[in-house]
Amino acid sequence: MNRRNFLTTMGALPFLPSLVSGSEFLKTSKRSLILIWLDGGMSHIDTFDGKPEAPPDIRGDLVSKESSLEGAFVSEHMPLISKMMKDCVLVRSITSPEGNHDRGSCYMLTGRRPNPVLNYPSIGAVFGHEAANDGDQIPPFVSIPDAHYYARQGFMPITRGPFEVGGSPGVKGFQVKNLNPPKQMDRAMKLLKAVDALDGYPRSESELGRDRFLDQARFLSLDPEVRSMFDVNLEPVETRARYGRHFLGQSCLLARRLVEGGVRTAFVRYKGWDDHRGIKDALSFGYPPKLTALDQAVSALREDLDRRGMLERTTVMVATEFGRTPRLNPSAGRDHWSRASSSLLFGGGLKKGVLVGKTDARGEAPIERPVSPADLFYTVLSALGADVETKLSTATGRPIPLIEQDMKLIKEALA
């Protein structure tokens, strides 16, 4: 019997939650995660799983070309990503029964399908919080600009939730809301502590959680070095230009600054991928076009991490809730399609130049190596160095395994 099976078998015993709890999670991992979330459902056929030989109503008007990773056809609007594909892992056989935005997002971000009883924590809520437990006031989980509902703490304490920066880092005058404190804040904090001390009773868990939040907020507000982590204006002009002077580019640059400063999970939420009408124009026109912004930001992020010696200790994942219908609809768009989608990964814990899975000639379903969102969740946590045998605890003390028995590793992707 291996350790994981032993823990699962022993899970019903009342002493287990106190022995194996979320607070004991990840004491050895030093890696960070940058998750670029393409909110709305990225079309796999028009990005990372092109079908140049398919009929026109399947391949559409956006041309795909073979990338530096043999067999992987990437949109011609992403030439920089195409060149770096030989250094990445491309999973193009993700398949799921969840074709609704919320349900699909839940499965991808938590590794679990929606449950009417439990709201599961996201990957950012279960990874990298040992620093906070050890008294480090830098938030371990930051969302740019905000977090999807299923990218939050779920059944775990609110202290596991994301710190949301709000706003767009690419906009002139951007600053994190309330990060610059009013003059009276320090006095107010001292007064609050004095009032709390009057009751004379031991602090409850909820009060201790509130106190930790307040201490963290005070630390973030009063420490100029920590505040500077959130200021992309401190970057050289040429670096900001390389990422792109747009929302995604500056958000990825901010994510790099944050993980460099000690943040363990940076969640970048890039909305607008729900293209039911005119998908060609939606992806290839605008300021900037979505594919161009993605190409510039992701390639710059990898190059920057590598140049700074951070690539081995940072795992990057580009993901979305599901793919889009292989056949164009009458409005020249693509509708929801959960049977096939793609995800791009690179960095720490991952091999280079790995192509996982294959879809059929129309991009409808995997014909090789089908992968579930749960399998991807398990694999990314393993690449990060997580203790995947950990059990989490609900508010009532119910032990919940981080990794379920039916989750399978994508072993060929792991270094």
Total count of strands? 16
Question: Tell me, what is the CATH class?
Answer: Alpha Beta
* Structural class by secondary-structure content: alpha/beta
pLDDT average, as an integer?
87
CATH level-3 fold name: Alkaline Phosphatase, subunit A
User: Would you identify the CATH H-level superfamily?
Assistant: Alkaline Phosphatase, subunit A
What global shape is seen?
A: globular
Number of helices: 15
Largest sheet: 8 strands, mixed
Can you tell me about this structure?
The structure is a single chain. The chain is an alpha/beta fold and 415 residues long. It has one domain (20-176, 230-413): Alkaline Phosphatase, subunit A (3-Layer(aba) Sandwich). 32% of the residues lie in helices and 15% in strands. The chain contains 15 helices and 16 strands. The protein has helices at residues 3-10, 16-19, 56-59, 79-84, 101-110, 123-126, 130-133, 185-196, 205-222, 224-228, 237-243, 247-261, 279-284, 290-307, 373-384; strands spanning 32-39, 64-66, 73-75, 89-94, 141-144, 163-164, 265-271, 314-319, 323-324, 336-337, 341-347, 354-356, 358-359, 366-368, 391-393, 399-401. The strands form 5 sheets. The chain has an 8-stranded mixed β-sheet, sandwiched between helices.
Notable traits:
415 residues, alpha/beta, Alkaline Phosphatase, subunit A, eight-stranded mixed β-sheet, two-stranded antiparallel sheet, 15 helices, globular
What is the compact description of this entry?
The chain is an alpha/beta fold. It is 32% helix and 15% strand. The strands form 5 sheets. Strands 6-5-7-1-8-11-4-12 form an 8-stranded mixed sheet, sandwiched between helices.
